[in-house]
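The instructor's notes for this session suggest beginning with a concrete chain rather than abstract definitions. Hand out the sequence below and ask the class to guess, before any prediction is shown, which regions might be ordered.
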Amino acid sequence: MSVFASVQGGQDGAESHGLGSIADIPDFITHHLEDSRVFEFAGLHFDLNVFAMEPLHLGPLVLDLSPTRQLLLIFMAAFLCIAIFVPLARATMARDKDHGPRGFANGMEALVLYFRDNIVRANIGHGADVFAPFILTLFFFILFMNVFGLTPLGITATANLSVTAALAIIAFVVVEIAGFRELGPAGYARTIFYLPAGLPTLMKPVMLVIMTIVEALGKLTKPFALAIRLFANMMAGHILILALVGMILVTQSLLVGGVAVLIMSALMILELFVAFLQAYIFAMLTSVFIGLIRHAH
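After discussion, reveal the predicted structure:
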């Protein structure tokens, strides 16, 4: 439910959200940020439990693949990517080379070329065009999920650590496979089992153990940083906005409400900028990591 749709003036509005005092605001924030099997929009409640599936038991691991409201937004973001870029790609292929694109197609082509030239090629180097579709997909998929949180739907899938961790793991797998294919088995092994040149013979085993641990941790910190950065930035803005909404519902004061609305308006503009920025940073850093491992020397 949108944070602005949550503001239902009067005592009934506060009671409907269980807000009797400022101490109840953290629970109010948690309720709106956590995932749920109830999709709320414009006062309507859609119970997603009707689509619930039996959990999959893989040894000690239990996987529940039942749909949730955040999962719906993830599929909506994926559908939006397909709905925009598949027709654009077909129109580009069918277009006469002597006539450039117009309107929306022209803007999207300019954005795609910017990413290819200034992000993908600049950071990856030779053979970079192979990774351009993946980097562009990451950017737009994350961007759409970020922006959905600013619409009346009010659901931001990237404010869920599980979602950002999954994206980071996918990026990590692509990075490592890219390095393995470029360097070969021996070259890739040296990105983990690293031994500085010129060491005395007695120091080589010790340094090999130390540097192996350091290099292995270095590989793991990259997806960790991607996941935490995206999650924390998208979560922080929504917490601030929801806290202000909670203050309005608790105090029911015109003065507090007026000031809160002004602050929220500024925060929403900032959140829109952050939505684009975080998608850009995630895509750019993935390109940087691919370039680093493919040119490990």
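Then share the key points. The chain has eight helices and four strands. The first helix runs from residue 11 to 16.
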